[in-house]
Amino acid sequence: MSVAFRRESDEEHLEPTFEIPIPAGPNWVTARGLRLTREKVEALEAVSTEGMAEEDAKKLKRELRYWRTRLASAQVQPAAEGDAVAFGTRVTYRQGKQDKTVLIVGDDEAEPAEGRIAFSAPLARAMMEAEKGESVDFGGKAGSLRILKVEVIGEE
Questions:
Q1: If you compute the radius of gyration of the chain from its CA atoms, what whole number of angstroms results?
Q2: In what residue span(s) does the Transcription elongation factor GreA/GreB C-terminal domain sit (predicted)?
Q3: Which of 8, 36, 88, 136 is most buried as measured by Cβ atoms within 10 A of its Cβ?
Q4: pLDDT, tens digit, for every residue of 19-40?
């Protein structure tokens, strides 16, 4: 019999499920980021899979594995000094005629809509180590960002 007509099982034809991708590089976190990661692990561990559909239980376990890995690899960064843009700072900058403020945080804590960007984001990388009053290149434009203010962030 030809292999084309043989069918071992239905499982053999299902799409594979992959782990949630871990961001490349170090897992830097703020104190807030570490707290949020712990809370996420605790919340996921508290969910009972009893009576849950098999696919939902697999999804939950996959997410729990991700967050446990992120908690185990978390590296709380020391507080920034505040004189230059660094991890754990709030940066107010001018781009064109608009003033904007962002907080530079870890990958899992980033919420761009709330003004929290990951230290690995292109904008954060462009501003790193710049001081108040300095202009930096961004988006292929020389001096397109001007740093107006740099502050150390606390538990926000």
A1: 22
A2: 82-151
A3: 88
A4: 888 888 899 999 999 999 999 9
Tokens of 154: 């606390």
Tell me the pairing of strands 89-95 and 141-152. antiparallel
Of the candidate CATH numbers 3.10.20.30, 3.30.420.10, 3.10.50.30, 3.10.180.10, the domain formed by 89-152 belongs to 3.10.50.30
For 45, counting Cβ atoms within 10 Å of its Cβ (0-12 exposed, 13-18 middle, 19+ buried), the class is: exposed
Number of other CB atoms surrounding residue 111 within 10 Å: 11
Collapsed DSSP state (helix, strand, coil) of residue 156: coil
pLDDT digits (tens, 9 = 90+) for 33-69: 999 999 999 999 999 888 889 889 999 999 999 999 9
Closest listed residue to residue 85, CA positions, set 142, 133, 138, 26 = 133
